[in-house]
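Title: Prediction job returns without error message
Component: structure pipeline
Severity: low
Priority: P3
Assignee: unassigned

Description:
Job completed but the reporter wants confirmation the result is attached to the right record. Sequence as submitted:
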Amino acid sequence: MRAVTFMILLATVLLAGKLELPVKSFKADGQVLDVVVQGHTIYSSTAASCVDIFDLENQKLLKRIKIAKIKDFMGDLVDTKIYSVDVEKKKILLLAEAKQGYRRLYIHENEKTSIVIDADAQLSIAKAKFLNETTVLLALLSDELISYDIAEKKMNWRVQVSGSKFSNFALNEQRDKVAVVDESGDLQLLSTKDGKHLKTMSGENLDNVFQVDYKSGIVATAGQDRRCVIYDVKADSAYYRASSFLVYGVGLSPSAKYAAYSSDENNNITLFNTQTNTTIARYGGNKMTISGIVFISEKEFLVYSDSKTINLYRAK
């Protein structure tokens, strides 16, 4: 019995110490701020006034979408941060830095980049994603959500999610529901059709939530309280995995059977089974603080950080 217990403990220690390394890496032109994958293509928005588009298979840079630099408070030209990117059919959505803390929203289509919302609208947009080809969902730092018609250039609806500062949101696969997280630690679910509040799930994250993902009825969060939380929306249940450090990034596989999260101060990633809460493997090779994790298949995922590098990992 003692021998069996020893072998289990030994296996646990070995697993904890072993780190899998990236199978591929992609180098963007600037610090990567957001990543979207469509088919075999990676779209990465950067802090260097551009979106870099890569071929997932051969790591080749396919295209670079450039936007104009902006003037800082001293009047000097500086690179524009592109905070988020999204793709819908042939349209590419860019959310970029503008004057006085406001944002510009661009659509890139047919080799042309056009402004949809300018800084004059005075919207402090934190994130923008497509709901469909003509509608985008905007999140403001004030924790408001806006459904915006980019064809008609008008708001469909605008709602206040909570009184806390916005952190992040994630759409489900059908894009009819959105999971919103903020500084309160609560998880809010809303309908994207009309902005109607559907559910609040609380008590698991006790502080600001940095990242959120939403797949197959499961929501995963990454928290300042050193917790990665897994919510089952339908069952109205949740559990968390405690980390030794702030959890900056999290991602779910397409089926939500697997989740990956940043799990220590060395920017390593832990992959686990969400159904059994068992660790599968740990991954290293990220030199900077994790910004996000994006699954491209059940056991393949991308990790980007406060750097120009996007790492691809593959579970054995």
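Comment from assignee: result matches the submitted record. The first strand starts at residue 24 and ends at 27.
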